[in-house]
Specification:
The complex is a heterodimer of chains A (107) and B (120). With 107 residues, chain A is an all-beta fold. Chain A contains no helices and eleven strands. The chains are: A mainly beta (107), B mainly beta (120).
């Protein structure tokens, strides 16, 4: 099983600032990496797939990068609706696996 | 617009079998473009992909659960189901049914989730 490790566990950021979230895979997943956002009491929402392709309706202040084992989700200027938990997920090898999440909270 | 809805008991006794059904509306479960999946999330924790099934009936299970798991599809009812046997408190979680893109392996549609508690 590919283990996905996200860092940091919690990120405290002020509105308008930039947030950088990291995701590392225990072995290469090529570009088969997705990011999701989850708010309390809600289901996860797909943000990014293919490591860098935004899903429909996702604003361009969110961007994904990386390949192989190192990936980054960047939120260029945090808005109030961006404070949530973010998960990465690999779909290169079965079982598809998620990271443990990064919580982005208001500083 | 495709929607998914989980149904099943919210409380299961230890050692018994957890059974859930997901009803698909607004689209056909026989579509070749998707894996029909079960994903779970213990309270305050991360997500675990339990298993997936294709419209043909071929399935893949998470090895950590494989010995206890059965996922099946009933195309005539546009439903797919989960059975997890010999449950323990560690199986207490929010259970989601989901539609995953067969090419990109990402969840494009989620059910609202159903909380299953394992307790006597």
């Amino acid at each position: 099983e590919i283990v996905m490790t996200q860092s940091p566990a919690t990120l405290s950021v002020s509105p308008g600032e930039r947030a950088t979230l990291s995701c590392r895979a225990s072995q290469s997943v090529r570009s088969n990496l997705a990011w999701y956002q989850q708010k309390p009491g809600q289901t996860p929402r797909l943000l990014i797939y293919g490591a860098s392709t935004r899903a429909t309706g996702i604003p361009d202040r969110l961007s994904g990068s990386g390949s192989g084992t190192e990936f980054t989700l960047t939120i260029s200027s945090l808005q109030s609706e961006d404070f949530a938990v973010y998960y990465c997920q690999q779909y290169n090898n079965w079982p598809w696996t998620f990271g443990q999440g990064t919580k982005v909270e208001i500083k | 617009q495709v929607q998914l809805q989980e149904s099943g008991p919210g409380l299961v006794k230890p050692s018994q079998t957890l059974s859930l059904t997901c009803t698909v509306s607004g689209g056909s479960i026989s579509s070749d473009s998707y894996y029909w999946s079960w994903i779970r999330q213990p309270a305050g924790k991360g997500l675990e992909w339990i298993g997936r099934i294709y419209s043909s009936g071929s399935n893949n299970y998470n090895p950590s659960l494989k010995s206890r798991l059965t996922i099946s599809v009933d195309a005539s009812k546009n439903q797919f189901s989960l059975k997890l046997s010999s449950v323990t408190a560690a199986d207490t979680a929010m259970y989601y049914c989901a539609r995953a893109d067969a090419v990109f392996g990402v969840v494009v549609t989620w059910g609202q989730g159903t909380l299953v508690t394992v307790s006597s």
